């Protein structure tokens, strides 16, 4: 990495850290939900796992808005 790029990362670290933590937390919550629940509005378990992991911030949001099925409990 170029020295200038490293300095930019150091300067923006306080902003990037919460975004990265939010991204991983949301992705983990969505993956756990996909693995525990058998019902989905659209698609299947494999499709939603790929969407959640590949499209990191957008994928979990799309899953919780459009893909999450009604629970049986």
UniProtKB/TrEMBL annotation:
Protein's membrane topology: Multi-pass membrane protein
Name listed for the protein in its UniProt record: Negative regulatory protein YxlE
Subcellular location: Cell membrane
Keyword annotations from UniProtKB, A to Z: Cell membrane, Membrane, Transmembrane, Transmembrane helix
Residues of the Cardiolipin synthase N-terminal domain: 26-68
Transmembrane segments: 12-34, 46-66
First-listed, main subcellular location of the protein, grouped into a coarse class: membrane
GO cellular component, one term: plasma membrane
Pfam (any one): PLDc_N
InterPro entries named among the record's database cross-references: CLS_N
């Amino acid at each position: 990495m170029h020295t200038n790029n490293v300095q930019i990362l150091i300067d923006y670290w306080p902003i990037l850290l919460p975004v990265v933590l939010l991204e991983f937390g949301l992705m983990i919550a969505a993956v756990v939900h996909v693995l525990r629940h058998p019902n989905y509005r659209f698609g299947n378990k494999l499709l939603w796992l790929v969407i959640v992991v590949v499209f990191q911030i957008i994928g979990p949001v799309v899953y919780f808005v459009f893909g999450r099925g009604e629970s049986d409990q």
